[in-house]
Write a structure and sequence with these properties.
The chain is α/β, with parallel strands linked by helices. It is 35% helix and 19% strand. It contains 15 helices and 17 strands. The strands form four sheets. Strands 1, 2, 3, 4, 5, 15, 16 and 17 form an eight-stranded mixed sheet that branches. A four-stranded parallel sheet has the order 9-10-11-12. A three-stranded parallel sheet has the order 6-7-8, sandwiched between helices. Helix 6 links the parallel strand 7 and strand 8. Helix 7 packs parallel to helix 8 and helix 9 runs parallel beside helix 10. The longest helix has 23 residues. The protein is globular, with a radius of gyration of 21 Å. The chain binds zinc ion. Zinc ion (ZN) binds next to loops.
């Protein structure tokens, strides 16, 4: 029954009118031909339907050549068979999607998103009195466009008013269209710290933090996000300042781990990050100023890095202009850009585990593509191979979330989350600029392949 609701919801969606201008821009920039109207109406597969994608090469995330002229059989929401056309049977009655000469990769995963993102400046002022209902609808639109640009799983690293939980539920029920969502709920911060809301009580002791972790757990969060240093969007304070005490961070990690939750930290600070790693931190966001010593320790302890490099590089400026960012904000962006990129280069050299995240809407137009794809391209510019960058956007992210048995690879038993591109992104990451088909859970949400 739930599935049926999903079908109705998607089929009713007008093909073009429902999309924001940004969405269309992003789709166009993602390499869509001009006939995007034809492309974006959803095709829906009821759970009983069998689909076979034929003729494409499966990108090999382990390196080496992929399966050429492959047949991928999808029954309901899962992949049931993958192999060369010659030896893989297409079940009778299957709907066949011909993707000859193209490449199939797992759906993209973006591990640092805020569907309700509000930043200082004109856009922030316009949203100052946004109601909870308006926030939820705006977030749903952002989730939908993210999926249409090829992002099938995201992790929310700070939302408000529990709208992320409502959105996740709506997507799971088929009432809204969007990626699979893992979330940290609302960020935990000290009084006056990064992301602190002056109208709310800050957290200022280990007990405060323990209570907040348990609160997030009760709301349904899988992650806890703490702010251990300053940030670009703060109106005051040093981005590299260390904001939480050791015993506060330890209270978070200990409580979260007892509840099988993972902890990630917004951090630009080497000192704060070293302390937090000692306290059991699982993941670091941004890492603007991390030194070799910190990166070495992260590699040793298996602490993840989600770089969000795209927020502080020159190609992001079109976005900041669009939202009317004030000069002080642009100056803060500029002050971290160079160090941030060097940090990423060093992290790659030190073999720190990296999962892709943007800190922008996954579909946000950037340099002629989306923020997600541009982020992956920056990883290659900083020293990753295209294969490593593709992995950071797929199987590595799935591993970080602990769901690598369900998503992040094109194999029997996995959820059928995939994208089809004209070229092989494991050889040239820019191939992700040309996504032609997006499937999530066996349902095609976008198809620009010739019929
Ligand atoms: Zn963020």
């Amino acid at each position: 029954m739930r599935r049926l609701i999903a079908v109705v919801a998607v089929m009713r969606a007008p093909s073009v009118l429902a999309y924001t201008v940004a969405a269309l821009a992003a789709l166009a920039m993602a390499g869509a031909p001009f006939g995007v109207h034809r492309a974006v109406h959803a095709q829906v597969s009821p759970s009983s339907r069998v689909v076979a994608v034929v003729g494409a090469t499966i990108v090999n995330l382990g390196g080496g050549p992929g399966v050429a002229n492959a047949t991928v059989v999808i029954e309901g929401e899962r992949i049931t068979a993958v192999g060369p056309a010659a030896s893989t049977t297409i079940p009778p009655g299957a709907e066949v999607i011909r993707a000859n000469g193209r490449f199939i990769s797992p759906g993209l995963m973006n591990m640092h998103t805020h569907y309700g993102l509000v930043l200082p400046g004109r856009q922030g002022a316009e949203l100052a009195n946004e109601t909870e209902a308006a926030l939820a609808l705006r977030m749903a639109a952002n989730a939908r466009t993210s999926l249409l640009t090829g992002v099938t799983t995201t992790r929310s690293t700070g939302e408000i008013k529990r709208a992320d939980f409502a959105l996740r539920r709506a997507i799971e029920r088929g009432e809204a269209v969007g990626p699979r969502i893992h979330t940290a709920g609302e960020t935990l911060n000290v009084t006056g710290g990064h992301g602190w809301n002056p109208n709310k009580q800050g957290l200022d002791s280990p007990d405060d933090f323990r209570r907040a972790v348990r609160q997030r757990h009760s709301e349904g969060a899988e992650w806890i996000k703490i702010a251990i240093s300053g940030g670009i969007a703060d109106t005051h304070g040093d981005i590299a300042a260390s904001q939480m005490t050791k015993d506060e961070v330890a209270a978070v990690t200990e409580t979260a781990h007892r509840l099988s939750m993972k902890v990630t930290a917004h951090s630009g600070s080497p000192g704060a990050t070293l302390e937090a790693i000692d306290a059991g931190l699982d993941c670091v966001e941004h890492g603007y100023f991390l030194t070799d010593a910190v990166l070495t320790k992260m590699a040793e302890k298996g602490v993840w890095l989600v770089p969000t490099i795209v927020v502080a590089q020159p190609t992001v400026m079109e976005f900041f202009k669009k939202i009317g960012s004030p000069d002080w904000y642009l100056a803060r962006v500029a002050s971290v850009g160079e160090s941030h990129f060097k940090m990423l280069q060093n992290a790659i050299k030190h073999k720190v585990k990296i999962a892709l995240g943007t800190d922008q809407f996954p579909y946000e137009p950037n340099d002629g593509t989306t923020a997600t794809v541009r982020e992956a391209q920056y990883y290659v510019e900083a020293g990753m191979t295209p294969l490593q960058a593709l992995r950071s956007a797929t199987i590595e992210a799935a591993t970080m979330l602990g769901i690598q048995d369900r998503v992040g690879a094109i194999e029997p038993g996995m959820l059928a989350d995939l994208v089809i591109t004209e070229a092989d992104p494991s050889r040239d990451i820019k191939a992700l600029r040309g996504i032609r088909l997006v499937m999530k859970g066996g349902t095609v949400y976008r198809n620009e392949l010739p019929r």
